Amino acid sequence: QVQLVESGGGLVQPGGSLRLSCVASGSTFGFYDMSWYRQAPGKQRELVARITPGGVIIKYADSVKGRFTISRDNAKNSVYLQMNSLKPEDTAVYYCNREPAVNWGQGTQVTVSG
Description:
Layout: E1 4-7, E2 10-12, E3 18-24, E4 33-39, E5 46-51, E6 57-60, E7 68-73, E8 78-83, E9 92-99, E10 108-112
Parallel strand pairs: 2-10
Antiparallel strand pairs: 1-3, 3-8, 4-5, 4-9, 5-6, 7-8, 9-10
């Protein structure tokens, strides 16, 4: 069973930046696309960004294009989400997962307020 551990969230003012990290267990990380999702209160979980094993970015949600950047380091079993120019509507719990999705981790809370 793959374990996913997200970190890097926090409280930030509008216009600020955060860098989220996700570490996955196991030896198959480099074979799968990886994605970041988010779930705001009262809303469904949505796909934010997706990246191939070779580092090609497949998808950004329209709402984050030009502000967020997904990247990965296969040697570290890690995927990252650099978030710039944050807005209050980016407030959510952020999750990483491989594609197709497996068990979900705890996520990391991002709150944009100020």
